[in-house]
Specification:
Elements: H1 10-32, H2 52-84, H3 90-112, H4 119-146, H5 154-180, H6 195-217, H7 219-223
Helix pairs in contact: 1-2, 1-6, 2-3, 3-4, 4-5, 4-6, 5-6
Family: Belongs to the DRAM/TMEM150 family.
Main location: membrane
InterPro entries: CWH43_N, DRAM/TMEM150_Autophagy_Mod
């Protein structure tokens, strides 16, 4: 049986494939429609103008839901592992979940408020999504090391930490360069003064975004051994 059909592995698998498709489809539609320059647009640029804005909004909203479901399931996995063999304070796992869910809210804001229509709200949501997402991956990488080798292999821990490190390194110039750009626009000319800032910021943004995707990809193996049971109890007189 395919690995993504075992246990709860379908959730991170759907998150990875759906989010990748969201970025790629909206980018292709935006480029073919002539709404953005094919060379390094911001991710949000590819979801600003119809028809790609509808595709982007719908798919990113579902990505936010899948992210929350994945993070909560991961939280329950770590909680159970920690009860079986204590390796970390439960608060650490809880803080990671809360930050991750805040990042999901930020992602939902990005999906529903286009950058040219309400830029302040859109940018605030993007900041929440990226910063909280990066901190989430860092905390989960630390948890993975703490639970190694019983619950995670050393190679998995190293991969997660490497992705977290790259994302952490990329988010700083992403925010710094974006803050130096004086105008929000979809099409850029290499001769414009803020063009370099745009290119650096866009490269870092795509790096962090796909860093999240590759990070959640490492959860698939862990989720294979997890099952979800829903029980219904009726108490009292009916």
């Amino acid at each position: 049986m395919l690995c993504f059909l075992r246990g709860m592995a379908l959730i991170p698998f759907l998150l990875v494939t759906w989010s990748s498709a969201a970025f790629i489809i909206s980018y292709v539609v935006a480029v073919l429609s002539g709404h953005v320059n094919p060379f390094l647009p911001y991710i949000s640029d590819t979801g600003t103008t119809p028809p790609e804005s509808g595709i982007f909004g719908f798919m990113i909203n579902f990505s936010a839901f899948l992210s929350a479901a994945t993070m909560y399931t991961r939280y329950k996995i770590v909680e159970k592992q920690n009860q079986t063999s204590y390796f970390s304070t439960p608060v650490f796992n809880l803080v990671s979940l809360v930050l991750g869910l805040v990042g999901c809210i930020g992602l939902g804001i990005v999906a529903n408020f286009q950058e040219l229509t309400v830029p302040v709200i859109h940018d605030g949501g993007a900041l929440l999504a990226f910063v909280c997402g990066v901190v989430y991956t860092l905390l989960q990488s630390i948890i993975s090391y703490k639970s190694c080798p019983q619950w995670n292999s050393l190679s998995t821990c190293r991969i997660r930490m490497a992705i977290s490190a790259v994302s952490s390194a990329a988010i700083i110039p992403m925010i710094a360069c974006a803050s130096l750009i004086s105008i929000t626009k979809l099409e850029w000319n290499p001769k414009e003064k803020d063009y370099v800032y745009h290119v650096v910021s866009a490269i870092c943004e795509w790096t962090v975004a796909f860093g999240f995707i590759f990070y959640f990809l490492t959860f698939i193996y862990d989720f294979q051994s997890v099952t979800l049971r829903i029980s219904t109890e009726i108490s009292g007189d009916v």
